[in-house]
Amino acid sequence: MISKSYFSGFCLENESELFSQYLTKNDFTVSGFSYGAIKAFEEVLNSDIRVDKLQLFSPAFFQTKDKKFKRMQLMFYKKDETAYCNNFLENIAYPSNINSKDYFTAGTYEQLDELLNYEWCEEKLQALIEKGTKIEVFLGAEDKIIESLKAKNFFIKYATVYFIKDVGHILNR
């Protein structure tokens, strides 16, 4: 049984309204943003419940980053969680003027570690397609969090990818 239809990003809650122009709301669609995209994907993959569409908004995609980058992110978080989160919230909002702090909730070191080290697996993506689930991936060309062009090139084989000009991680202007 899928516990919910929308999965929030790292350090966020109730931000689904930011994606209202793209979000499909029905009993057979599951969506997630950034870290929530990982959670939504794994939930749908490991469920026997019918899901026709999985929407991944700016999925956390760090498998192109080296171990040093990931260690540094975790070190900065551990050193000053507040400064790290403030910088993160600023970067996810870029280039929009949306106040992402309105959606802030405390995240954990373990969640950050999980999202930084998550490996999107082509076999799992293919298995989900074979279950009959259509995958949509939404990426912003101006994303300051992930390398959206590399994510686009990875997901294009398994999903309908929307690569949106002039928006960042939260897909808004």
From TrEMBL:
**What's this protein's name?**
Pimelyl-ACP methyl ester esterase BioV
SUPFAM superfamilies recorded: alpha/beta-Hydrolases
Q: Which organism is it from?
A: Poseidonibacter ostreae
InterPro entries, per database record:
AB_hydrolase_fold
